[in-house]
Amino acid sequence: MASPDGPFNMSAAYTPGLGVPPWLNKGDNAWQMVAATLVGLQSVPGLVILYGSIVKKKWAVNSAFMALYAFAAVWLCWVTWAYKMSFGEKLVPFWGKAGHTLGQGFLLGQAGLPATTHYYHNGVSVETAEITPFYPMASMVYFQCVFAAITLILLAGSLLGRMNFKAWMVFVPLWLTFSYTIGAFSIWGGGFLFHWGVIDYSGGYVIHLSSGVAGFTAAYWVGPRSTKDRERFPPNNVLLMLTGAGILWMGWAGFNGGDPHTANIDSSIAVLNTNICAATSLLVWTCLDVNFFKKPSVIGAVQGMITGLVCITPGAGLVQGWAAIVMGILSGSIPWFTMMVVHKRSRLLQQVDDTLGVFHTHAVAGFLGGATTGLFAEPSLCTLFLPVTNSSGAFYGSGIQFAKQVGGALFIICWNVVVTSLVCLVVRLVVPLRMPDDELAIGDDAVHGEEAYALWGDGEKYDSTKHGWYSDNDTQHDRAPSGVTQNV
Q: Among residues 370, 6, 369, 21, which one has the least CA distance to residue 197?
């Protein structure tokens, strides 16, 4: 309907200064939301599908649901208190002040990250001011939330097949609050590691090293799967597992490409390097499987893909293409060696039941990526991203950067071992960490009353008089013809 001002009158949403403030760049905002959505898709449905397919059939529902629950729980915690603990005003050198991000006054303003100014050592001259991307805080909160969510989901990979779901429900908000926010603030949010100059382009330490170490630590406290499950734990659907893995790989374009917080040239390099390293790592892992085990393993290829993606993450936009290939060779071989050789010879690694080997694919690969970034970070690329001026890797004459990378990793490792242990000890005061033996024996049906696949005649018998299927646990009067829903 035409207005008095004419048929082409714009609404307030499109009016410059109202819906389109002067600082807004629509291209940057669009890319940031697309990148965040790609990362979200890595979790839901990516890891939901991967987890539900890579485990034994009786744990498909439970494993997928652990990922889905974590994704939802992190969202509410994030906007209520955790975002500002990770990226808000400093409370202590490794933690921000808690606060909500629910008001439009905050969300519609221009994004700022981190909420601190980086000074030179004299404490007076500004080295790097707070960055102000050309999009609103709502996009920033969205982008950072999906990173927090996938960290918890990756951690869950160590606990599949035996953690009490009620314990997981309590564990997620506690670990997010007392572990993830510490790493995020320390390295990304203006904490002491940020100002020291530790490089973590997109989460090699904040996400992968922390989830790998925390997952292994939590697996120790939760305890192992049943003996039968540890001895034989075949994937229930390899093709669906590959589907989840493919979503994970393609979603990594948002994971690494979104962290410059603008659609710039560095974002393009980050996405390209991500694919180079992942492909190289997958091929190296597969070649090692063929050479030593005489068979190319599909699960092994997925593990190699993941270690490559994890390894490049700390330096995705900071290294050259040749370095991405070198990092891929290392990430396809060193985690392979720790998983296939070291693991079998280590009493500690054998004792702790890390279901999906998250320690190797994320902790080892994350540390490796951070360390090699300290070697290969190229000076001109560093100027496009890092707050500490004149940063560069050891190959370009700055050996101190490698030491910073190792120091930052040690902080993340130690914090996660201690805090994850404390969280587990607190949770088990409320609810047992491990499922009871009867639930471990049955799986999804006992825990959730649901099963992943309704296979023809699976565990059921046919009653010709009733023309329907029933299980051994059904009583005669509970039987009903196929297609009739029973009241439970």
A: 370
Residues in Cβ contact with 468 at an 8 Å cutoff, skipping those fewer than 6 apart: 462, 479, 480, 481, 482, 484
Residue type, 62: N
317 neighbors 270 (Cβ within 8 angstroms): yes
pLDDT (tens digit, 9 = 90+) per residue, 353-404?
A: 999 999 999 999 999 999 999 999 999 999 988 888 888 999 998 789 999 9
* Strand 95-96 relative to strand 90-92, pairing: antiparallel
Secondary structure letter of residue 356 according to DSSP: T
Q: The pTM is what?
A: 0.90
Statement: residue 17 has pLDDT above 90: no
Residue (of 216, 218, 211) closest to 168 by Cα position: 218
Integer CA distances (angstroms), 215 to 230, 271, 467, 469, in order: 17, 27, 48, 41
Residue 10's identity, in one-letter code, is M
Nearest to 101 by CA among 128, 82, 115: 82
Q: First vs last Cα of the chain: how many Å apart?
A: 55
Omega within 30 of 0 (cis) for the link into 436: no
- Structural element, H or E, at residue 29: helix 26-41
CB 206 within 8 A of CB 153: no
Backbone angles phi, psi at 401, to 5 degrees: -65, -35
At position 169, the amino acid (one-letter code) is M
Q: Give 243-282 pLDDT, tens digit per residue.
A: 999 999 999 999 999 999 999 999 999 999 999 999 999 9
DSSP string, 300-348: HHHHHHHHHHHHHGGGTTTS-HHHHHHHHHHHHHHHHHIIIIIHHH-HH
Cα–Cα distance measured from residue 361 to residue 344, given in angstroms and rounded to the nearest whole number: 16
